[in-house]
């Protein structure tokens, strides 16, 4: 039986692209941008969606190549600005908290496993008001491991008092989330926020369009497991 559900945060629980659009007026005031606020938002959303798994420097270089800037900032300035903005302007999906409440009502334990610096990720969590919805929140910056290392999934299951094969893990990243969870013994679910998959990684056994679909999927998984 499945007794717990753990989630990635970025690209999974909150609306990454609404967040990007919300920060773009400040972005365009801060940097020497060659396009309108609306065009800048569309460009960053497009290339974040296509290239995010390749790393932020790749996204940044594509923005420069496509003419976003009159004079491009240094990557460190660009990244520091977005990290700061995402910590304070993160936009929640309207269905995330009701979904978490439904999982709690059904008796599941709930966890979050997110890669990143403690202060940055903790600020997002506070801004989004997520803490009361989770039994455990694991930020990789507090540990010696990052996803996809199995230890971070195993530590989460241990803290929840279950085995890893009793935990569903929901995330968007083919390597960090899906392959990592699978190798740790969890049941991986791919949330198709970007729709971008790495063909070198075996496909996920389960897929959802958004986390709103998780309660219904869990009912299916429980039935399959008898």
Number of helices: 9
Rounded to the nearest angstrom, the distance between the terminal CA atoms is 8 Å
State the helical fraction: 40-55%
Mean pLDDT: 96
What is the fourth-level CATH superfamily of the largest domain? HAD superfamily/HAD-like
* Count of separate structural domains: 2
Bin the strand percentage. Answer: 5-15%
For the biggest sheet, the summary is: 6 strands, parallel
CATH topology of the largest domain: Rossmann fold
CATH class of the largest domain: Alpha Beta
Strand order of the largest sheet: 5-4-1-6-7-8
The assigned CATH architecture of the largest domain is 3-Layer(aba) Sandwich
Class inferred from helices and paired strands:
alpha/beta
Q: Sum up the overall morphology in one term.
A: elongated
> Any low-confidence stretches, pLDDT <50, length ≥5?
none
Q: Kindly state the number of beta strands.
A: 8
Q: How do the SSEs run, as a string of H and E?
A: EHEHHEHHEHEHEHEEH
Protein model, in words:
This protein is an alpha/beta fold and 226 residues long. It has 2 domains: 4-15 and 92-224, HAD superfamily/HAD-like (Rossmann fold, 3-Layer(aba) Sandwich); 16-89, no CATH class. Helix content is 48%, strand content 14%. It is built from 9 helices and 8 strands. The strands form 2 sheets. Strands 5-4-1-6-7-8 form a 6-stranded parallel β-sheet, sandwiched between helices.
Key terms for this structure?
single chain; 226 residues; alpha/beta; Rossmann fold; 2 domains; six-stranded parallel beta sheet; two-stranded antiparallel sheet; 9 helices; 8 strands; elongated
